[in-house]
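Notebook, bench 3.
Goal today: get a predicted structure for Cytochrome P450 from Gossypium barbadense so we can plan the truncation constructs. The sequence was checked against the plasmid map this morning, with no discrepancies at the termini. Length recorded as 221 residues. Pasting the sequence as submitted so the record is complete.
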Amino acid sequence: MALIENQNFFGAGTDTSSVTIGWGIAELINHPNVMEKVQTEIDSVVGRNRILEESDISNLPYLQAIVKETLRLHPGGPLVVRESTEDCVIGGYEIPEGTRLFVNVWALGRDPNQWENPLEFLPERFLSEEWRQGKNQFLDVRGQHFSLLPFGSGRRSCPGASLALQAVPTVLGIMVQCFDWKVRDGANGTVNMEEKAGMTLLRAHPLVCHPVTRLSPFPAL
């Protein structure tokens, strides 16, 4: 039992982050203007004489916006499981106490009633004046707003959220700082974004791409 629990924790902590990074790279390949913009931001803040570090993330708002937009469209865990603690009525349905409930995080992030152009990859939506000054001024990914719940919400929210929000942008940032990412011309230069059902939001097709060096990750070698 302890081994199974450890495997669950390990899988939840590694699979979801690696899946998110994969989706992020795929979106950047399909949106080269976004990749160029974040590379420019990293070059201006970090420079080209060293590799991006975790301490740089707070000074890279566009990179953070890319991670948030990736989590909105491709949450690592598309469903959050909960259990009703008392009898209640949801959407006209009577729900007895102890009923297992599933929150469709994937659908919430694509709800046209909550998001403008919900199917488009637009990191700028998290940086716009309307977002900063409007009703969504404090919108984040930590479960404070039910339109964006990649880590769940409440006392049973993902305990690794803080780690993921440091690890994912750091790894993703280093990958685009050091390399341009491309796919074969035979695929029209774009990545197939078809999804596969699972406990984590996996890709239906392997991500096959090749890096083109723009900054050596091993400058001393």
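Strands lie at 79-83, 88-90, 93-95, 100-104, 179-182, 195-196, 202-203, 210-213. The chain is about 40% helix and 15% strand.
Flagging this for group meeting.
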